[in-house]
Amino acid sequence: MPTLAIYGNTYQQSHLEGLRRLFTLLSGGAFHVYIEKGFSSYLDSVGVSTGEFFVVEEFPKGVDYVVSIGGDGTFLQAAQWVGRRETPILGVNTGHLGFLASYSLDDTEELLDALASGRVRLERRAVIEVSCDAMPEGFWPYALNEVAVLKGDTASMVTVHAEIDGYFLADYMSDGLLISTPTGSTAYNLSVGGPILQPTLSCLVLSPIAPHSLTMRPLVVSGNSRIVLTPRSRARECRVSLDGRSFLMDSGDSLVLKEAAFKVCVVRRHDGNFSRLLRNKLGWGSSLI
After folding, report:
1. How far apart are the two ends of the chain, measured CA to CA in Å?
2. Which of 82, 209, 260, 287 could be bridged to 129 by S-S, CB 3.0 to 4.6 A?
3. CA separation (Å) from 232 to 94, 154, 242?
4. pLDDT per position in the chain (289 positions), as tens?
5. Which bin fits 31, alpha (ψ -120 to 50), beta or left (φ > 0)?
6. Residues 25, 27, 31, 34: is their CA dihedral positive or negative?
7. Which residues contact 186 (CB under 8 A, 6 or more apart)?
8. What phi and psi values does residue 147 have, to the nearest 5 degrees?
9. Which residues are catalytically annotated?
10. Distance CA 239, CA 249 (A)
11. Edge-to-edge strand ranges of the sheet holding 203-209
12. Which helix (H) or strand (E) holds 89?
């Protein structure tokens, strides 16, 4: 009997019937089910019964799959909940684009059959690890999508001194600098003009945000690279964001980025592929007329 851990967000008002159907099927005895405490409380408050499942706050041991119900932001939170364990995560999209999700609530029977039979495809995705003296205690120092070094509370641009493997690369004068994983290449990186990368590649992308120079273009480097960034600004502080979670660091201090020693395992449809994903999610190759 496979063991599932369910994680979700609290913005499911238009999906309650689909959730009731999902949890009714889960109660059939084919799975051992845990539900994250915050999501369980929300479901109970909106009349979706979870009474017979185990409610947990910390990620439990012995889980075969995690089911993330929400958008890409929820998936990133589920990955943090899983931590370094590399437990496969299946995304059920109830958000907007849902680039990390392979299923919707309309696919409930299909996704449960796939999990019960093991007919899924796993993709191991690289994670960025960040080291910085200014990082608050208890802050999760990893990013599945991107790390952004941004200007603080000022209209002035920030200059980010970048070194790769001990060698000076450039002083990026811009509104900020993104370091993206291949998974994050279709997120913030894409919106600032960075390249789309196949998500299982081992590489990182440096993409400046509104650069002050035409020579500051996105750059792809090896996933084995060690990147040191030192931001300087007229403001006393700069902001560092990891998948949307942020802290402030003093201007002139440095942070170190490298690929983490663990991966995030993403569950994909057995018959899915990157080309289909681009067409379905981004309308790749479709006519503009």
Report:
1. 50
2. 260
3. 40, 12, 19
4. 899 999 999 999 999 999 999 999 998 888 999 999 999 999 999 999 887 899 999 999 999 999 999 999 999 999 999 999 999 999 999 988 788 999 999 999 999 999 999 888 999 999 999 999 999 999 999 999 999 999 877 777 899 999 999 999 999 999 999 999 999 999 999 999 999 999 999 999 999 999 998 889 999 999 999 999 999 988 889 999 999 999 999 999 999 999 999 999 999 988 778 888 888 888 888 765 5
5. beta
6. positive
7. 99, 196, 281, 282
8. -115, 130
9. 72
10. 6
11. 219-222, 203-209, 176-180, 146-151, 237-242, 245-250
12. strand 89-93
On whether the CB atoms of residues 9 and 69 are closer than 8 A, the answer is: yes
State how far the Cα of 179 lies from the Cα of 85, in Å rounded to an integer: 24
For the chain, the residue count is 289
Report strand pairing: 54-56 vs 32-36. Answer: parallel
Amino acid in position 1: M
| pTM of the model as a whole | 0.93
Residue 73: which H helix or E strand, with range?
A: helix 72-82
How is 209-263 classified by DSSP, letter by letter?
Answer: ES-SSTT---EEEETT--EEEEEE-SSSEEEEEETTEEEEEETT--EEEEE-SS-
